[in-house]
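Our preliminary data section would be incomplete without showing what the modeling component actually yields. Below, a chain of 349 amino acids is followed by its predicted structure, encoded as tokens that our downstream tools consume directly.
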Amino acid sequence: MKKSVLAAAMLLGLLVAGCDEQQTSADSGLVLAGKTMGTQWRVSLAGVPDDRQEALRSKIQQLLDNDDHELSTWKKDSVLSRFNQAHDNRPQPISPEMADIITMSLRIGRLTQGAMDITVGPLVNLWGFGPDRQPSHTPSQTEINAAKAQIGLQHLQVIERADGAYLQKDLPGLYVDLSTMGEGFATDHLARLMEQEGINNYLVSVGGAVLTRGHNAAGNAWRVAIQKPTDRENAVQARVDLQGHGISTSGSYRNYYELDGKRISHVIDPQTGQPIEHRLVSATVIATTALEADGWDTGLMVLGTEKAKALALREKLAVYLITKDKEGFSSWMSPQFRAFLLQDDSASR
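Predicted structure:
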């Protein structure tokens, strides 16, 4: 639903999401993988016998298929698509899980002063990163202004009633796009499934969102690598021990296309209505849940380096930023992020 490439790489002994570092087979444990939401999911387990493999794979895929059917903007019959297609202000019933996603989105949207905006769908579609085809020409200011008139978090609210949760809009053309949060939500959902299955040592990921618990098959902490902003799949920028947290990375260096001689990033600034052009190329966030990390990384990418730094320090977020400069690339991490950095990496930074 969001990043077409995994920007966070797991060091699990297999070639995964841009890292070819090999570990022993004892480290690998049971590894399951598949596709969902236009990206990949991966589950690595320790202490789980092989004979559970097929049953777990089936449960995982069914769970993720259900999430996709609820959150997808690509499926016309999804819960979210039906809400977007309803051009009235009647409250629409939603699941408690969707209510949680939107409530978190509204909170992060407010704290980023609208930089993270799940109603930005009309602009995403206008620039060719939604279900619509890529434009044949750069959208005009008139087209951009028309799309901007259809967005705004102030037009959306979650209503909690005795009989369940509802979603309501007061702008008929409002279009909600949860692709900025879907991978984090699905990753958390996978983690809950593992706990329900009595599995306490796992690393789960959907797209660029990752969450870990416990240790790998060798008894060591799960390690996650942040990829360098390069086309080299195995280039590692830094490695962290998540300590049971979630992590998500948003980057502007892979999901793009060329239009009228310019590189068009998939990260859209709701304020300008245009793809970002600043020098921040990657934002990684570690948070209690993958959902929260997934929301913050998008907002930080929109803000750019200096505003992202200020927000990370103000909100005490665990953030790692990579910025393109004259020398190539430079990195910055908040004090909260440094606590997760592996010792052999921190010594050189």
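Residues 1-26 have pLDDT under 50 and may be disordered. DSSP finds eleven helices and 18 strands in the chain. Preliminary results of this kind motivate Aim 1 of the renewal.
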